[in-house]
Fold:
Amino acid sequence: MAFENMKTMLHKARHEGYAVGAFNIVDLNSTRAVIDAASELRAPVIIQTSPKTVIFWGPQILAGWVKSLAQQSPFPVALHLDHCKDLEVIRQCIEAGWTSVMIDASSRPYQENLALTRQVVGIAATSDVSVEAELGEIGGVEDDKSVADADARLADPANAESFCRQVEIDCLAPAIGTAHGIYKGEPRIAFDRLAEISRRVPLPLALHGGTGLSPDVFRQCIRLGCAKVNISTQLKHTFFDSFVGYHGEHRDQYDPLKALACQYERLKQDVRCLIELFGARGKGE
Ligand code: 13P
Structure:
């Protein structure tokens, strides 16, 4: 089994110029689809959970599923808590076995973000858990987090450099113009800013708001230091569309396992395509 934190897998990815997919799961079927897709491609993978999903299932149940499925894969699997503002939920997840957490204090002033992130790094260090932090403010809606377009702020490269010098995080999520959810128009990615942040910060960077970005945008961001790519909304759509679509085509069937099998295949197919696109095929070996 290779159930581990994100540190080694993301350093290797940044160094070798590919990205590890971080996929938000909602249940056992979606977790199984993501881990199996990665395992078939011999790729490292990050299973990501929003705080809302943790609260829905409870940390023990969720961690149990991921650990038992990760045990069946010979390739690295991390379990990461996405966008969490609540230290208590962070503590509970670490106790239950999460290998990685994101403290999202990006809506706070710089010094408060730094202080809270330091606190989380202190809690995480005792359990060998990796930490991601956010700078600037990423727009859009992600589960229980909503940032209006007018409030989204790009990360400042000088702040990113001083932040990472002052606190020992493992991954930085700088706001560079991507947004959570479905893009209303063509996203305007601040590639120059990303390049400058990448020049000043040697850490793996996380690209949020992956749903709807073009292959070319993914490639450019990965080339500029994004070693982790987050995908959530696309999988939520596939989760519904595949299940409902299956029933639409088999109106007289009420066999949930057949619909779940269809959902599993469709989710796995999405994740496989994205892992290939991020260049992570074969990188788990
Ligand atoms: P999307 O929902 O746009 O794929 O973004 C996912 C994400 O960044 C989770 O943190």
About this structure: The first strand starts at residue 20 and ends at 24. The first helix runs from residue 7 to 16. The mean pLDDT is 95.
